[in-house]
Amino acid sequence: MRTLAALALAALATPALAQTATVAARPFEPAPWWMERPILASTGHVWTEVPANRAHVNATYDAIEREASAAQKAAADKVRALGQALAAYGADKVRVETTFRIQPLYDQYRDRQGDVNENQRADKIERYQVVANVAVEIRDVRLTERVYATLMAAKPSSTQPVRFRLEPENETRTQMFRLAVEDAKRRGELAAAAAGTRLGAVKLIDPTGRACETDVLVTGAGRSYGGEVGAYQVPPPPPAAPPLPVPPVERRVEDITVTGSRAGQQLDPESIRLPLNPPLQRLEQRACVIYSLG
Fold this sequence. Notes:
5 helices; Translation Initiation Factor IF3; alpha+beta; five-stranded antiparallel β-sheet; 2 domains; elongated; Alpha-Beta Plaits
C-alpha cells in the first residue's frame, strides 16, 4: 500500500513540475531602446505655397475617309503640322505624346420600331474614322496660354481642361528639409526648457518623420543597429539631375502657323489665346530629430 501511494503521488507531481519548468523558460520582453537613456523625439513640420510648375492638356483630332489609308494620312497631316509647332518650343519645355485609334463606321438602318442599328460586318463598313490623341506636358508654365491656343487653332474634335500640378525641384526639397530640421530643433529646445532640462547630442535624424511615432520607438526594442543603439547614418541627398539637352530650334515660334482642316487655311493661335494662371500648391515637409537630454 505504501508503494502504490508513493507511485500515485509521483504521477501527480510530474505534470506540475514540467509546467513550471516551461513557464520559467520564457524570456522577459526587452525594454524599448529609448528607455536606456533619456531622450526627446521632436518633429519639425513646415509648409509653404509654391506656384504649380507643370501643366497637362489633351486634345483629339478626327479624320473620316472611305479608305483606312486615306483617313490615316488625313489625321497624320493634322497632327504633323501641330507637332512641328509644339516642337519649336523645345523638348525641355513642352513634351508631346501622340496616339492613334482607327474605328470603322458601319452602314446604318432603321428597324420597324424606328431604332437606328448598325450592320457590324466587314462588308458593311462605309467609312473609317481615325482619332489622334495629343497629350501635352508643359514644363514651362509661362507657355501654357500659347500652347493651349496652338492646340485650339488646329480645331480639335474634343479637349480636356488644363490640369496643373507641382513637381518640386531638388533644391526646393533640400531647403524644405533644412527648415523642417530647424523647426524640430526649435520645438525641442522649447519642450526641454519647459521640462527644466536641456537638449543633448543628436541621436537620430529621419527625413520622413516616422521615427518620432510611437510604434517606431517601441518596435524593435533592445535591438541595436551598427553596434550602438540609435546609431543611424543619414544618407547624403542625391545629386541634382543634369539638365536635359535642348534640341536646336531653327525657326521662331512666332513664324510657325498651324494648317487647318481646309487646304490653304492658316490659323493664328494668338487670336484665340485665353488667360490661364497656374494655382498655388501646398508643399509640406516633416523631419524627426531625436536628442539626448541633460
